[in-house]
Specification:
two-stranded antiparallel sheet; signal; 5-stranded antiparallel beta sheet; 2 domains; alpha+beta
């Protein structure tokens, strides 16, 4: 495996682990950003969406966003890169293609958090003639963090009480450093 492949794999795993997601951007309203030549080195993120076509039907957009830089803006994380894809109308005909630089908000998703993961080996208990044999026990407790999940939100908050959540600027600097490593390899 070459250095370039290794760094590409690391970036993809990091983005997947962080739950990188494009948030609320359509190709027509995306703000332009400065293009770079790193698109061939860095793996893209799939982007899909819908639109109303000329006949009033539901058209679809399917494409790829290739990140080229990250920045902090108003306390949020902004990803700049190239969006490529195709717009297909409700009859299945391609009505246009997109290949342009865009900037879009990026979010770090946290759907669940692990509260407890306990594995007990086999147990043999003999108390005054009462024999209890228990095979291996694996207990996993996971909290769901979402609006309306009060207990899940509370347990996730307690679980991550001592974590240092990076600011958007820190996260942007880390991601830009990884992009620079990919460009060098």
């Amino acid at each position: 495996m070459t250095h370039r492949q290794r760094f590409s794999t690391i970036l993809v795993v990091l983005l997947a682990a962080l739950g990188f997601a494009a948030v609320g951007t359509s190709p027509a309203t995306a703000a332009p950003a400065a293009p770079t030549t790193q698109a061939a080195v860095i793996p893209g993120v799939p982007v899909t969406g819908t639109f109303t076509d000329a006949t009033g039907g539901a058209g679809t957009f399917a494409g790829t966003f290739t990140p080229e830089s990250f920045s902090a803006q108003d306390g949020g994380l902004l990803a700049a890169g190239t969006l490529t894809g195709a717009l297909t109308d409700s009859s299945g005909d391609t009505v246009g293609t997109v290949d342009q630089p865009v900037s879009m908000p990026a979010a770090v998703a946290q759907a669940t958090c692990r509260v407890l993961d306990l594995t007990l080996g086999p147990l043999h208990l003999d108390v005054l003639g009462l024999v209890v044999d228990l095979n291996q026990v694996h207990l996993t407790i996971t909290a769901q963090s979402a609006p309306g999940n009060l207990l899940g939100n509370l347990l996730c908050a307690i679980t991550h009480l001592l974590d240092q959540n990076p600011s958007a600027g820190t996260l942007a600097a880390i991601l830009n450093f990884l992009l620079a490593l990919l460009a060098q390899s």
